[in-house]
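User: quick one, sequence for these tokens?
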């Protein structure tokens, strides 16, 4: 642990003016359209590895189960298998080989064999040939349009983005923003651009109050070359878990107002006391990008940083290990379990490393959590 502690990725250092600002090598959360599939966005189809091709068709099946069938169990199963295969270092040559990976069951292994033998999957061919399925998948690519809304629109004869643009009266504010910036949102955000917005946010918050702390999480913090959106956690010593969100919501409202004045934030999708969702643009020549800001209590901040850094698989493994060590870990707190497996009081956490130490888990930097 000593050497790992020396390489802390999120240790805070004073910004200009004396304020503490997060120093993370920060990075965001993979999903299923092109903006949420880093590997798919980086390589042309012909250059993809076998593993990535398998992962792609599993992600496509996952999308179908979520958007059309609305079967979240299958959606999660396909996603888990796809992630395991995409990150596996050896080329998958058979379903039996894939079966050895965590998250790959017999049915998925059979689909892998079919794909390896024929270069396609009969189930996917049928899904793609169905006009209704295609329409729902198209509409759900628009930010803030979920499967239920997409089905409602398709039932009304709205099946394309052009149809949607002609019937914007059927959309709420958030969905209209998603449609307005659809082309920009579909493009992934290069790491260099997130580094620039990170500097802007830090500078603005530091000018507002040097006690603000900010961390860009997700795949950016894990070191990936591009992200689908920008997720920022912020905190301030004045906000602790003993105070209500409403009481301290002014901290987030003030931060958003400052970023709007700085002309970084261009659109607001939703804005509460602890969560802001909207759109930013670095300058007039840049694309519009999605931005989420979350205000966390200072005593829960590093549990939140750990959770929102991901990856999902890493978080699951760490939570499982915590249980084995008689602790319960979530995005808010780390608590010891008593003999009756009831959680005790939250343990004091002042860094991510504290969490690793408590549960006797070897420290892994954010860039080592891409499972």
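Assistant:
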């Amino acid at each position: 642990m000593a050497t790992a502690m020396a390489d802390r990725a999120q240790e805070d250092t004073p910004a200009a003016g004396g304020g503490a600002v997060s120093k993370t090598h920060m990075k965001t959360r993979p999903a299923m359209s092109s903006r949420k599939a880093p590997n798919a966005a980086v390589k042309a189809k012909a250059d993809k590895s076998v593993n990535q091709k398998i992962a792609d068709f599993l992600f496509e099946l996952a999308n179908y189960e979520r958007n059309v069938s609305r079967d979240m169990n299958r959606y999660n199963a396909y996603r888990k298998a796809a992630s395991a295969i995409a990150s596996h270092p050896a080329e998958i040559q058979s379903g039996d080989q894939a079966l050895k990976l965590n998250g790959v069951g017999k049915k998925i292994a059979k689909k892998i064999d079919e794909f390896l033998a024929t270069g396609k999957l009969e189930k996917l061919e049928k899904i793609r040939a169905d006009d209704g399925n295609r329409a729902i998948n198209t509409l759900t690519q628009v930010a803030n349009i979920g499967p239920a809304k997409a089905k409602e629109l398709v039932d009304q004869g709205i099946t394309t983005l052009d149809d949607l643009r002609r019937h914007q009266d059927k959309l709420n504010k958030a969905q209209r923003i998603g449609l307005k910036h659809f082309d920009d949102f579909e493009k992934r955000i290069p790491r260099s651009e997130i580094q620039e917005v990170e500097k802007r946010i830090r500078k603005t918050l530091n000018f507002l109050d040097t006690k603000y702390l900010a961390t860009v999480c997700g795949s950016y913090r894990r070191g990936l070359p591009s992200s689908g959106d920008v997720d920022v956690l912020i905190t301030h010593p004045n906000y602790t878990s003993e105070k209500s969100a409403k009481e301290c919501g002014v901290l987030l409202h003030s931060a958003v107002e400052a970023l709007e004045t700085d002309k970084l934030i261009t659109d607001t999708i939703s804005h509460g006391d602890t969560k802001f969702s909207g759109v930013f643009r670095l300058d007039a020549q840049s694309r519009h990008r999605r931005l989420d800001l979350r205000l966390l209590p200072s005593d829960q901040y590093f549990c939140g940083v750990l959770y929102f850094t991901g990856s999902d698989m890493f978080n699951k493994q760490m939570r499982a290990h915590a249980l084995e060590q008689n602790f319960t870990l979530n995005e808010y707190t780390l608590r010891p379990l008593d003999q009756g497996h009831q959680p005790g009081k939250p343990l004091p956490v002042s860094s991510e490393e504290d969490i690793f130490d408590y549960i006797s888990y070897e420290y892994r930097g954010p860039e080592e959590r891409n499972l």
